Amino acid sequence: MKTIGYAATSCDAPLKPFSFERRALRHNDVAMEVLYCGVCHSDLHQARNDWGGSVYPIVPGHEIIGRVTETGPDVKHFKQGDIVAIGCMVDSCQHCDQCDKGNEQYCREGNTQTYNSPDRIDGQNTYGGYSKHMIAREEFVLHVPKNLDLSRAAPLLCAGITTYSPLRAWNVGPGKKVGVIGLGGLGHMAVKLAVGMGAEVTIISRSDKKRTDAEELKAHKYLVSSDESAMQKAANHFDVIIDTVPYKHDLDPYLPLLDVDGSLVIVGQIGPLAETSSVPLVMGRRRVAGSLIGGIAETQEMLNLCGEKNILPDCEIIKIEDINEAYERLERGDVHYRFVIDMSSLKND
Ligand code: NAP
Ligand code: ZN
């Protein structure tokens, strides 16, 4: 099927309109018209080849809300007209121990990412949600709770699940003290979800600028990481810290904030960190861990929870032609707190 999208053609080229062919519908595929697509900092990293391995052209976008247009003959759970979602993965081996456990993101054979990943059957590079149409096998398509505002639901598919998964893995709930480093797309979802799970939540931000938003986000405390005396006072406080910082950074200021047996979970930077002292780890049996998105069943669980509690990201809706400006603003940290592209702005001509 012929379709259109926006693509980066090299690491320093702005995104521009791109016509391409989506694969023909397979027996277990769901095809959809894309309604909204969130803009994740990972899109920017991949468009710029920050992680290496970008294969151009790249059509980014892995926070996708769509309306089903067609289903393959073996599709059981979706029908034309359904409102559905796709996140960061579109396939996995479906038979390893991790896939069996619902951890498709940790598939032993590697998951197939929504964009910039070879398709498991035809080897073609996958293209993401900054496009008119998407196709994915049924197992990687999610149901969107009916009450959610569709224009704001897309970021749940990456920012939501990437923070929900470690919060669940570390049993966050009433009585737990959670810190969130970096109040951006992922960070503000971590705050909303941890508050929704009943934890005491502290925003850990570089400056005072976002303090006024803390109340609206229902965070209990706000800690400025550049304020040394405030950081010292907060020592030994947290059971879990979710670290969403997107660049190489120093963990040393943050580790003493953890209580004995506390964990700092990295979800932001994927790559080298600044040299870290083992002293706070050894002296408090503290841990540094990492976490990648979340499994499909867990993503559905998160969507359902957000439906029940009406948890939604704070979004700024943009047109697709404004994507390059949005990237510049994302780089400057000038977004409250997620850009979402209204895909009706992508015209055929
Ligand atoms: P974002 O909206 O740009 O937010 C990042 C926040 O980090 C900023 O708002 C800022 O918060 C803080 N920050 C930025 N630069 C910093 C620096 N140099 N030092 C310290 N703090 C800094 O980004 P996002 O979309 O939330 O994505 C965050 C990261 O998660 C990206 O690297 C992305 O690739 C990654 N990611 C990982 C996964 C996964 O599965 N693990 C999934 C999705 C995304 P303050 O102004 O409050 O300090
Ligand atoms: Zn993402």
UniProtKB/TrEMBL annotation:
Q: What sequence ranges are listed for the domain Enoyl reductase (ER)?
A: 10-341
Write one Pfam family the protein is assigned to. Answer: ADH_zinc_N
* SMART domains hit by this protein: PKS_ER (SM00829)
- Family classification: Belongs to the zinc-containing alcohol dehydrogenase family.
Return the protein name: Alcohol dehydrogenase catalytic domain-containing protein
- List required co-factors: Zn(2+)
User: What keywords are annotated for this sequence in UniProt?
Assistant: Metal-binding, Oxidoreductase, Zinc
UniProt organism field: Aristophania vespae
Report the InterPro entries cross-referenced here. Answer: ADH-like_C, ADH-like_N, ADH_Zn_CS, CAD-like, ER, GroES-like_sf, NAD(P)-bd_dom_sf
Annotated transmembrane regions? none
Molecular function as annotated in GO: alcohol dehydrogenase (NADP+) activity; zinc ion binding
